[in-house]
Design a protein that fits this description.
CATH architecture of the largest domain: 3-Layer(aba) Sandwich
Radius of gyration: 29 Å
Distance between the termini: 59 Å
Structural class: alpha+beta
Strand content: 25-35%
CATH topology of the largest domain: Rossmann fold
Bound molecules: guanosine-5'-diphosphate
Strand order of the largest sheet: 7-8-6-9-10-11
Shape: globular
Largest sheet: 6 strands, mixed
Length: 701
Amino acid sequence: MRVYELAKELKMSSKELLAYLKDLSIEVKSHASSITDDQAEQVRGFLSEESGDDVAPAPTESSGERGVESMPDTSGDDAGMVESKAEDPSPVQIAEQEPEEEVEVEQSGPSTIVVKGPIVVKSFAEELGLKPNQLIAELMSMNIFASINEKLDFNVAGRIAEKHGMTLEKEKKAPEPAPQQQEVEMPAKRDAGKPEDLLPRPPVVTFLGHVDHGKTSLLDHIRHSHVVDGESGGITQHVGAYTVEYNDHVITFIDTPGHAAFTNMRARGANLTDIAIIVIAADDGIMTQTREALQHARAAGVTIMVAINKTDLPSARVDRVKQQLQQEGLSPEDWGGDIICCPVSAQTGEGIDNMLEMIILQAEIMELKANPKSPARGFVIEARLEQGMGPTANILVKEGTLKVGDAIVCGQYWGRVKALINDRGIKVRTAGPSIPVKCLGLNNVPDAGAEFEVCDNDRTARRIADERSERRRVSQLGDTQRTTSLDDLLRDTEATEKVELKLVAKADVQGTLEAIQHSLSEISSEKVTLTVILSGVGNITENDVILASASDAIIVGFHVAKEPGVSGLAKREGVEIRLYSIIYELVDDIRNAMTGLLQPISRKVVIGQAEVRQIFDISKKGRVAGCMTIKGRITSKARTRVKRGDEVLYEGSASSLKRFQNDASEVREGQECGIRLENFSNFEVGDIIEFYELEHVAQQL
Ligand code: GDP
């Protein structure tokens, strides 16, 4: 039987049961793992014996609510249990250690951990008062496998801290250059809450995955089949997310599926999602955007589940999808791994109830909690100006309870909450943790992803908003943008102990990408660790920039171009993009940055320039640039880069160089030629195609 089934029978949470199983040395991975009948019987026996001995039963702090008295009296084989106790001291020890453990949790009380550098498992465990292996086990229950010296994503660490009644705060960076600025007044004082104030909150779920695999259909099906009818006369209101009730549990689904929206919000600092469900069509299997979605979800540190959709189709092959998942490093739990995979059909509804049940179980394991009594805080999912209502913001409450009449500051705007409308179109007075509502009363339309917080009064809210918009104005004037660049990284290495360099790597073909990853993985450095958060084939897209921005990564492109709009966005987001045409040049740059050696081992020597005069769409293989060699000479073997003004759009090589209709190996100054490049054809008249060779400089070892 499954762990959660036994938990249900024993009227305890799966988390509690998992703790018992661990103490009984029964190895299971998750609540969905199977155990044998004998093992189930062993647990029943152990528990009934414990209750008979009147020993406090619970190894976890939350189990006090569920008394062991209510458990079925399944008196097991006592003699056997006594024997096993004698051999293995752990059950006895638990009984003795429990009170201590409980006290420890309570004593820790509400406090804040200020994060200065990277959050490393070992030291973070110390801060939490845990042993490293306890923390590692907790991480595993969130499907995150980290070793003792590994670094944790801020959000992941935040969630763990929350579980232990603590809050995590990034150390404030040096003050922004806001002239004559006093400290910005903080909104209403927020008590993270005593552990007993923290109550379970609904999980927030987002569907991600490849286009057409059924994200929207699943959202629609769940919404129509599980929203309680009659509450609203059937009129659902679009508030950016909606809640459903299943088996007395509430689940919140974000209404905008897809990793672009997901990461866009994250780049703005809005980490709303607890569980990302990767939707994979059973007939199609894992596709490009599925991989991308996985990488986005992993970068965000959210818990991952999988929905294998379209199982109604005759061409559906669920096992093949599981096999592919395995290859991606996601082991399905029914194959002995820890990723919950739910076969579903958005068309027939088959499997959807099971998926909801799995979400609830997953949420239970994650112990999502918030303090509903504190002043509210949360994020804008989307906002607009609506006729007759003024600015409306669809928001999701993260912490506390938002009430009509509250003074709030939201990004650089403020207001007094005039009305709250829930996802059923009903006006409500309050909205608690994880609940989405439409909020009326702000003085302007805030950005998607903006954070809102309740303030003590209107005056404070207005002042904070004014100060923020002044800051924004000043920072825009001075064009002071946060940037993540290799140079910054080097500078930072002096300040902090060890720095993580995160990369988004794009290349023209999979083989090259693998070669790059392999070469990068061989670089080791005392100061810097390297993590490739996304690697993919194809041009650099806006999504890549957003992901890099959300994760403080830099983008490296190999034989690829930037899609339209990418340069502008990268500039606004302060993301560095580096284009390369040879692997070792890329690897050297990274190595140099990582080891602190800046001596280049190769230097680019420009041998000639051609200007694009005309563009021909004559070839199936891509557009040809009709050029004039304006300087030096160009050769078919040289490396090329395309420049538009000061900006480099492409680095790579020419796939053909022609004089009239004939292939040419060299074209001299003043001569015309036709140039076709590998993976770049987005020419504009006036672009300069630069040809260069690499001059090698002795490498310093
Ligand atoms: P999204 O792009 O991931 O949001 O995908 P959609 O929800 O728009 O679905 C894409 C197409 O697949 C639509 O034509 C749906 O009707 C169809 N579709 C979605 N789910 C199922 C399913 O479970 N079974 C079948 N047969 N078709 C489905």
